[in-house]
Specification:
heterodimer; A: mainly alpha; ABC transporter involved in vitamin B12 uptake, BtuC; 2 strands; about 70% helix; B: mainly alpha; two-stranded antiparallel sheet; globular; ABC transporter permease (chain B); transmembrane (chain B); cell membrane (chain B)
Chain lengths: ~325, ~350
């Protein structure tokens, strides 16, 4: 018990929490944008994998880290475009298309990585993002180390939460996006094209997912290896439900999740005799538990997974 | 441009769709192969040779197809009732674990056919239980089963690791994390001597025929179809939706579990955390390429196995990364999804 408390009051734990939460924040915001417009994007796991590979490779080939992130976003948007084309104008099953995108994007990432990168005994590495201390704020005891000494993409993730929450609730674009997910007929009646909004939303959301993946290889780690996303995409899909499709709650969910993850990592080193697999299982079981807890109260976007065809009910 | 639902789906269109999808996939992936500096013609020829070029190659391809038939059937049965079982991978491992756990001690006491029946039953029960949890969560709490079945795949794989490094660990394996082997007498007999091809594939095809008969000839089959096509209309017509979905879940999970049992009793002999090269996920592709029809599942499994076995050989011969198999498969899945649209809809200007 004392050990648990000791771990929890350590600032380095909280710094790790935000670092672990960063890819989840990007991913969960991306899924949220897609779903708020009415499209479930199960391509997330593969898009994160592709983003991780493309972002890393761009830097490995000599570009700077931010260019790497930008190229990853573009790759994600291309996958998003594909998913949007299949599910929005063609109205195909969002479940099957999404899984197809996940299989395709991850297979493509692995194929291109093998094709373009010589892998020896260890995967090649790049120089990843370094923590950047916010001048002034980082001098605050505890908070300075826990919150204000992070890698730049982490600050970007948190900024995006605020931006997206504001844009969704206070701008015409946000209103149009939300309305497309709730009632596309009403959007049409306003003279807007709901399908065009959905296509853009899926592309933007997929770009964010890829950004989350790219942080894994340019921040959290410094190399790419297959299966590195480890179900983070699926966890993001669960977190969106847990967050009732709200950016603020999504941030909270991602942080709670990361806290649990960082905590169990440290607990593993303290508690002896418990197989490490049990600790590793916990995040997945926790996601399922979170889904059960909120499922009854979840306010699902009304038109989620319903393709829109003009003049059809 | 708008889509109009066709009055009835023609059989020809349904038969053409998978071939069109596969052709589109091979065409699109030719570009990726060319990027590796290898002529796509050469690569595809090598793949065909690698999958069917020798007696060994052919037996390997059918060995690979056996578990795919069952995981593909598992996905097809579930998808038909709109139960999105993406957990075939986990259910496969549960079946494999059950076979390994019971396969070395207790069952050797029983006469052979009975011992096999017990193992198959245990593996199917293990797979079914794993899918019943998400199915019941959906029916009881409205939790989307796609996410839960996907997450459970990760849990099960860790559980397999826990078992093969723990209570089921083989002390004779020089520290390799693998389970104790099943008794030699329990291994399925070879179909072709001096190869890995065993009677499992015959078993899988028999199961396909049984499922096909059940689906086309029984009330349960009619009920699953109705539940998948239009749940509200089905409920109105008196179909017990909850009971039907629970039965479908048990069947689907059981089939994937059986695939695990057969893989352990057939070519592998024990359980490791890497024994499945994604049989569960490939099963989804198989089911879609088969347009969810049981008989189509057999053909689609052989195709997917051809791609995988062929790609390995092709990769060794030409240096094109063998991940091309996964790319071809996923593109075929997406193309099939689009092709199915044109079997059920016609485009009007």
């Amino acid at each position: 018990m004392m050990e648990a408390l000791e771990i929890l009051t350590n600032a380095s734990l909280w710094a790790a929490v935000l670092r672990i939460a960063t890819p989840l924040i990007f991913g969960v915001l991306g899924a949220l944008v897609c779903e708020r417009a009415g499209v479930l994007n199960l391509g997330i796991e593969g898009i994160m994998t592709l983003g991780a590979m493309v972002g890393w490779l761009t830097v490995y080939w000599g570009a700077d880290l931010w260019t790497g992130l930008a190229v990853a976003v573009l790759a994600g948007m291309m996958m998003g475009w594909l998913h949007a084309m299949l599910t929005v104008p063609l109205g195909l099953s969002q479940h099957v298309s999404g899984l197809g995108i996940t299989l395709f994007a991850s297979a493509l990432a692995y194929y291109l990585y093998r094709l373009w990168v010589q892998v020896g005994d260890l995967p090649p590495t790049i120089e990843p993002f370094q923590p950047w201390a916010v001048p002034g704020l980082s001098a605050i005891p505890f908070l300075g180390e826990a919150v204000f000494t992070q890698m730049p993409p982490t600050y970007l993730a948190m900024l995006l939460v605020v931006l997206l929450a504001w844009a969704l609730n206070h701008t015409p674009v946000g209103l149009a996006l939300r309305m497309t997910g709730e009632n596309p007929h009403a959007v049409e009646a306003q003279g807007l094209n709901p399908n065009r909004i959905r296509i853009w939303a899926v592309m933007a959301g997929s770009g964010l997912m890829a950004l989350g993946g790219a942080f894994l290889t340019t921040g959290a780690f410094n190399s790419f290896f297959p299966t590195m996303v480890q179900g983070r995409g699926w966890i993001c899909i669960a977190l969106v439900v847990f967050a009732s499709w709200r950016p603020g709650k999504a941030l909270l969910g991602a942080i709670l999740f990361a806290l649990f993850d960082a905590f169990q990592l440290r607990l593993q080193t303290v508690v002896e005799g418990v197989p490490y697999q049990l600790f590793l299982m916990a995040p997945y079981l926790l996601s399922i538990l979170a889904l059960i807890l909120v499922a009854r109260r979840a306010r699902v976007p009304e038109a989620l997974m319903q393709p829109y065809r003009r003049g059809e009910r | 441009m708008r889509f109009e639902r066709r009055e009835d789906v023609s059989l020809t269109a349904l038969l053409v769709a998978p071939f069109a999808a596969v052709a589109a996939a091979l065409l699109l992936c030719a570009g990726l192969i060319a990027m590796a500096g290898v002529s796509p013609w050469v690569a595809y020829a090598e793949m065909l040779k690698g999958a069917f070029g020798s007696r060994l190659a052919i037996t390997e391809t059918f060995t690979r197809a056996s578990p795919l038939i069952l995981t593909g059937l598992a996905a097809a049965v579930a998808f038909r009732a709109r139960l999105w079982n993406i957990g075939g991978e986990g259910q496969f491992y549960m079946g494999a674990l059950a076979a390994a756990a019971l396969g070395h001690a207790t069952v050797t006491a029983l006469p052979l056919p009975l011992a096999w029946a017990v193992l198959a039953g245990a593996g199917m029960a293990a797979g079914a239980l794993l899918l019943l949890v998400p199915a019941i969560l959906r029916l009881r709490f409205g939790v989307d089963e796609v996410v839960t079945t996907l997450l459970l795949n990760f849990v099960v794989l860790l559980f397999v690791g826990l078992m093969v490094e723990g209570v089921l660990k083989d002390p004779m394996a020089f520290g390799w994390p693998q389970s104790v082997p099943v008794a030699a007498g329990l291994r399925l007999p070879d179909l072709v001597p001096r190869s890995r091809l065993h009677v499992g594939i015959v078993l899988a095809v028999v199961v396909v025929l049984v499922v096909w008969l059940v689906q086309s000839r029984t009330v349960f089959g009619a009920e699953t179809r109705a539940a998948g096509l239009n749940p509200r209309a089905a409920a109105f017509a008196g179909v017990p939706l909850t009971a039907t979905l629970v039965k479908v879940a048990a069947l689907s999970g059981g089939l994937a579990g059986l695939a695990g049992v057969i893989e352990v009793l057939g070519p592998v002999g024990y359980v490791t955390t890497t024994m499945s090269p994604g049989f569960g996920y490939a099963g989804i592709v198989v089911a879609m390429l088969a347009a969810l029809h049981p008989l189509g599942v057999v053909a689609a499994s052989v195709f997917v196995a051809t791609i995988f076995v062929g790609a390995d050989a092709m990769s060794r011969a030409t240096g094109v990364p063998s991940f091309i198999a996964d790319v071809i498969m996923s593109v075929a899945l997406l193309a099939m999804l689009a092709a199915l649209l044109f079997t059920t809809y016609r485009v009007r200007r």
